[in-house]
# Entry
Amino acid sequence: AQSVTQLDSHVSVSEGTPVLLRCNYSSSYSPSLFWYVQHPNKGLQLLLKYTSAATLVKGINGFEAEFKKSETSFHLTKPSAHMSDAAEYFCVVSDRDGGSQGNLIFGKGTKLSVKP
Amino acid sequence: DSGVTQTPKHLITATGQRVTLRCSPRSGDLSVYWYQQSLDQGLQFLIQYYNGEERAKGNILERFSAQQFPDLHSELNLSSLELGDSALYFCASSPTGTPYNEQFFGPGTRLTVL
# Structure
């Protein structure tokens, strides 16, 4: 069965410092992995996705994530945080093969706060 | 703006009542997905429709049902509402029936059951 664990429910950084949001996944088959962002009172927006091409994936707004199969991790990073990055971030896994229909399984979310 | 629209934005109702949430997918998208987001359960997949047919079911209660119409808009019906049904309900759409590609989310409908 597939699952995803976001290791921190809340991360606080200062503006201009690096961001690291951690995610571990469990998947029986070849996973697709996503990071979505949800700003307050808004819907979810795709930041980036991994679907078995390059292991380092670049997304929007300067975010990137690295797929590490040996560690079953897909951590999200950004070199320099912006005030506008304050939001909730969801790590998402989907099996692309197998009988699970490949539906998205969401982590519990990590709330990112950015201090001036 | 994702191109997915949901109405209404907010809904306040009483226990035991029935409500209908509406979703219009992006132009050209054939799949519609419904999700429930609550504080205790997080974001959970409820159900997927593809081109009018039910494709996959997640953690959807028997009191809930959905359908997708010929014009591809979808409705989620919630009946015999309980306090615990209070949540944000999202609709998402994608071009194909394979959910592991990108899904485009609407702004959500916030349901409050009193």
Observations:
- The CA atoms of residues 86 and 112 of chain B lie 5 Å apart.
- The longest strand of chain B covers residues 42-50.
- Chain B touches chain A at residues 2, 4, 33, 42-45, 48, 55-56, 58, 90, 92, 98-108 (CB under 8 Å).
- The two ends of chain B are 31 Å apart (CA to CA).
